Amino acid sequence: MSDLLSKIIPLSLGAAISPTVLAVGLLILSAPKRAVIRGTTYTAGVMSILAVLTAVGLKLTHHATSVPAARQPITRAIDATFGLVLLLLALATVLRAMSTDKESAAATKSPADPDKHSSLWAAFVLGMAMMMTNFSTILLYLPAMREISASRVDLSDKATAVSVAFLITSMAATLPLALRLIAPSKSAKWFASLHTLVTRYQRQIAVTIEVIFGAYLLLKAL
Questions:
Q1: Interhelix angle for 35-64 vs 120-132, to 10°?
Q2: Rounded to an integer, what distance in angstroms lies between the CA atom of residue 102 and that of residue 120?
C-alpha cells in the first residue's frame, strides 16, 4: 500500500495545481453576495467531473492492464503518451504566450466574471467546464488511476488510494471553500488578492507543472 501511495501522491499533487480552477473559485468566494453557496456549487461541479474521470480512468486502465504479459508495455506506453502530451501542452502555452498575449488575457478573465455566473446552475456548469478543460490535471490524474488499477493490493487498499488521489486533486476547489467557511470575513479579503496573483502567474505555473510532470512520466516510461 505504501508503494502505491508513493506513486499516486506525486501525480495527485501535480494534478491539484490548477491555476484556472483556483482562480475562478477564489473570485466566486470573494464576491459580496451568495459567495459560499455559489462556491459550494462551483466545487460540486469540479468534483462531479473528477468523479467521472475516476470511473473512466479505473475502467479503461483495468481493461488495458488486465493481461499480465501486456501490463508493462501498456503501462509504459500510457506514461510516455501522457508525458509527451504534457510537454506539448507546455510548448503550445509558451508559443501562444509569445504571439497572443492580449487574447490569452481576455480569455482568462471572461469565465471568472462573478456577475456573469451568479446563478447556482451557472456556477455548477462553470465548475464542470473548468475541470473538463483542465488538461494538465486530467493528464496527471488518469495515470494515478492507472497505477491504482494495475496495482496488486486488495480492494480496500485500492479504495483508500482512490480516495486519497481524489481528495488531493480536488484541493484547488475544496481548500478555498473550507477556508471561506472557517474564516469568512478574513478569507474574502485574502481571496481577492490571491486571485490577482494566481491570474497573473497562471501561465508560468501551468508551464512549470507540465514540464516537470511531463518529464517525470517520460522517465517512468523508460
A1: 40
A2: 30
d(CA 140, CA 213): 8
Give the DSSP letter of residue 154. -
Relative orientation angle of helices 68-99 and 101-109, to the nearest 10 degrees: 110
Question: What confidence score (pLDDT) does residue 200 get?
Answer: 85
| Residue 202 near residue 49, CB atoms below 8 Å | no
Average pLDDT over residues 66-81: 68
Total-model pTM? 0.81
Neighbours of 201 (CB within 10 A): 12
Which DSSP string do the residues of 157-220 spell out, in sequence order?
HHHHHHHHHHHHHTHHHHHHHHHHHHSHHHHHHHHHHHHHHHHHHHHHHHHHHHHHHHHHHHHH
Q: Which helix (H) or strand (E) holds 153?
A: none
What is the CB neighbour count within 10 angstroms for residue 14?
26
Neighbours of 118 (CB within 10 A): 14
Other Cβ atoms within 10 Å of 140 Cβ, number: 28
What is the distance between the alpha carbons of residues 144 and 58, in angstroms, rounded to a whole number?
Answer: 9
Ordered alpha helix ranges (H), the chain: 2-16, 19-29, 35-64, 68-99, 101-109, 120-132, 135-150, 155-169, 171-182, 184-221
Least confident window among 2-6, 25-29, 74-78, 105-109: 105-109
> In degrees to the nearest 10, what's the CA dihedral of 125, 127, 131, 134?
100
Contact in structure between 143 and 64 (CB atoms under 8 Å): no
